[in-house]
Every structure is written in C-alpha cells, then in structure tokens.
Amino acid sequence: MRPFSSCGTGFNFQLNETDFMKWVSKCTQHEQLHKMNYINLEDLWITKEGVTMAHHEQRFRGRRGLVFAGTALLALVAVGGMAINHYMNSTPKALVFQEDPVHLKLEQSYDHFEGWGTSLAWWANDLGGWKDQAKVDEVMDLIFDPAKGLGLNIVRYNIGGEENPEMNALRPGGDVPGFQPEPGKWDWEADAGQRSVMQGAIKRGVNITEAFSNSPPYWMTISGSVTGAEDGGNNLREDQYDAFADYLTEVVKHYRDTWGITFRTLDPLNEPSANWWKKGNQQEGSHFSTEKQAEIIKKTAASLQSKGLDGTVISAADDNSIDETVFNFSLYDQDTIDAVKQMNTHSYNGSKMEELRALADKLGKKLWMSEYGTGGTEPHNHEDMTSVQELADRIMFDLKIMQPSAWVYWQAVEDEGAKNNWGFIHANFNGDEQYEMTKQYYGMAQFTKFIRPGAVIIPTDEGRTLAAYDAKAQRLVLVIRNELSAENKAFDLTGWDVAKTGSAQVYQTSPELNMQKLEDIPVYTNGIEVPTADNSITTVVLEGVLPSAE
C-alpha cells in the first residue's frame, strides 16, 4: 500500500485524527476532492446513524474512484465526522427567504426587564395550609424553581383586611386573614399560610417582593365590609386614612424585623377606580376616587418614612385598565407623584400603552405590569389552548409596546372548584390536597424558562413574535405565537454574529405537546426558518450568539 502523502489517490488506513484533519483541510483548500469527482463534501452529511449522501446522482470515475470514496467515508466515520463538520462550519450558507422575514427591531430594545411574577392572593392562603408538605413542595418547585419549573422571581403579597365575621364567607382562598382584627389589637400569628408560601418562594429564587392591599380592615370601612361600599363608591372612613396607612406600614415593618423580609414596594390600592367593589361580593375590594387615591398614597409614604422603612417605597395604583392608570396619574398633584416610585398597572383593559410608557419615562418612574390573568373562551378544560393563545398575545403585546420592567400573572394556582381555565395549576382549595397542571402552565413556560431576568427585550416588526437576548449567556431567544395553520416562520438575523451557532433548539406547546423539545434546526449566516405547528407557541434558543460588530 502506498503511504499517505498528498491529495492524490494514495491512502493509509492508519491515519490518526490530526493527520486526517490536515489531509481534508489541504484537499478542500485546493478543491482537489471536487475536481477529482470522488466526493462532493457539500452533499455529505454525518449523523449519529452514519454517513449519507444528499444527492443520489453522485458518480465516481472507475473502480479506483469507488475504492477511494469508500475509504474516505470509512475514515470520516472513524473520526466522528469532525472533518466534515469543520468544512461545513467554515463555509456557512445564507438562507434564501421565500417571503419577507421577521426583523428584530434592535433600536427599540430595552434592558430593564426584572422578571416574571405572580400574586399570592388567594392561592397561597390555601396551599400554605396543606398538611401534605411533599405536595406543597411539588407545586412550589413548579412555580418558582428555575430548573424544575417556571422560575418566577417576583411575588406580590396580599396584606389582608379580614372580613366582618357577621358577613357571608368570601370565596375559597379569598378570606385572607388580617393582622388587626379590631382597633388596638394585633395578631402576628395570622396569615401563616401565605407567609409560608412566600418564604418558600424566596428559598427557590424569588428576589423581589411587593406588598399590596385589596381593602382596609372591615372596621375601618363605611359599609362594615371588606367587599366594598353599598354603592361601589369610596369605602374607607374619613377618620381612618392615618390608621389604614399605619396598618399597612406596621405589617411591612414586622415582616422586616421579625421574618427578615423587606418588601421593595408597597401599594395601598388595587383597581381603585373600578365601581364593582360593592358590599356583598365574594372578595375584598375597595374603590378610591382619584382624590382619595392621592390622599392614601401620600399618607402611606409618610408613614414608611416615619418608621424608618427606607427599603420600601410606594407603588401605585394597580388600576384594572391601562387607560385608567394614565388618567389618574395625569390628575395626581406633584406631591403624590413624588411619593410614587413605581407605577403599577393591570393590563386587562385599555389601549394607551405607548402613552403610559412615555409618561413613566417622563416622570422617571419604574413601570410594572402588575396583574393579568386569562381563562380563554372554552369551558373548564385543563388542555384548553384558547387561554394559552390569549396569554401569549398579552405578554407579547405588553413587552413590545408598554415595555414594563416586570410582568406579573394574577394567580399561578387557581381553585379547581371554580371550574374555569385561569391559572397555571388547578388545586382543590376545599377538600383533597390535589393539583393538576394546565396547558397554560406550558404556555407560560415558553417565555419564563428562556427569557430570564436581565434579558434585553427586543420587539419585532411582526405582531405574533418576540425576541430577547441574554448578553452574559450569549443566548438569543425567539418566541412565535401561531393560532392559525402550520407554517414556517423566517427571521432575518442580520446584525447578529451566529458563526458559532450551527443549530438552534426548538420547544413547542400545542394541543398535542407540552413545551416539548423538538429536533434542532439549522442556523444560517443571515437568519433562521422555524417550523410552527397550527395552534402553537414555539420558542427557539440560539446559543453562542453575539451582536455583530458591523
């Protein structure tokens, strides 16, 4: 046998990996393999199953060509396909777009995203009292653990008002205990369930906590009930504004001093502009006119300062509608605006997202989307996809246009007995300590598992897509919402250096899949094409990506 020496027809079965790589590099550099028609490297693919030819029309000249090609294939397999991978990576291809691709609008990106969260009302009040601690830990991991679950890192703790014992019972979980059942009497053993859940959440990685109130204690109200006024109007008695501010800040102080939990923000209000908070409802709620909102905001801020609670600042006003938030802040006096350090809004209703973002920027305030939840349009069904589509649509809409620093869901866990499709997990608030995951859980995971706190949020020029970039991890994430028929969605990645990224990971939730990892897809020099199933949410993860220097 002739010894290996050049790109000629001589070969040696005993080539080591280093020499073989040099041989392939030399041959490909001089295009000898192509000229000899022994093998077309661009049509050769190495997989775990072996070597295959992409085109069957390859022809070899004579018996020596066949022998050479077979030997080359054996050698390539022997070194695990490293030579071909080297060749393919050194000559990346561009993607030919069949139609206009999605473009990432880098000029509109923002880097102040703090993370994802949930309110603890009302589910933590119930779950925290379960006797089966193993079941509690399972649910907690599913919600807060970054590796095992959604990885939510923000919780909103509800400071309960506690209903008048002479009134009808509130909805399951909604009867959140208060710490001051009557004037001058404090009960610091109250609300052990919600407190236990919050402590467990912090152990699993929650790093931002906010306290908020749905209603003052019943004995401070005009109606004598935490459910609202008789007519849906203001319900806090005129002589109780100082007392209510003291109540809220005393709870904040006790949590700091006794349990070592410092709430970063305190909101004394919840959907204060709504007129549906009426006596006899099944949950806590309290209307405040704009003037009265300003009054309790300023008094609560002053109470925080007087007690030396410098680690906690005021957030407000958690209106149900984005438009209500814009309206109320336009009417607050300067002292009230100065007292508010963080603007909170729910996004159930309203369209003035750009106006709110501009207002927050103008006032120099952090902006949160502090509550949203959805149950879709279908009857009670844990596999419901309409709620998943509504959730994904809202997240994309809010993050792209309103651009909040945090996005917080209402209740991560909903009462199975309510027979709706809200929430990520359904549990029995009354009865057996059991739970089931819903399809909406996996829809949320398509975002929270991959777009982590600190990521740069990148709007796109297409309404059903969103992008995010983690500079530290060099990870680019693309999320696609498709409520229509199956299609391929192409992205133009001009402006990104993907030289180190040969393929991308794909995860999908659909009627058949629960955030299932699919086969990796190729990444081209200028973009990527993603197959999406009908009625699905698809997340694409590209590792080793850098912004282009150009």
TrEMBL record:
Transmembrane segments: 66-88
Domain Endo-beta-1,6-galactanase-like: 103-346
Record's signal peptide: none
Keywords: Hydrolase, Membrane, Transmembrane, Transmembrane helix
Gene3D superfamilies: Glycosidases, Golgi alpha-mannosidase II
Pfam families (alphabetical): Glyco_hydr_30_2
GO MF terms, alphabetically ordered: hydrolase activity, hydrolyzing O-glycosyl compounds
PANTHER family on file: ENDO-BETA-1,6-GALACTANASE, ENDO-BETA-1,6-GALACTANASE-LIKE DOMAIN-CONTAINING PROTEIN
Name of this chain's protein: O-Glycosyl hydrolase
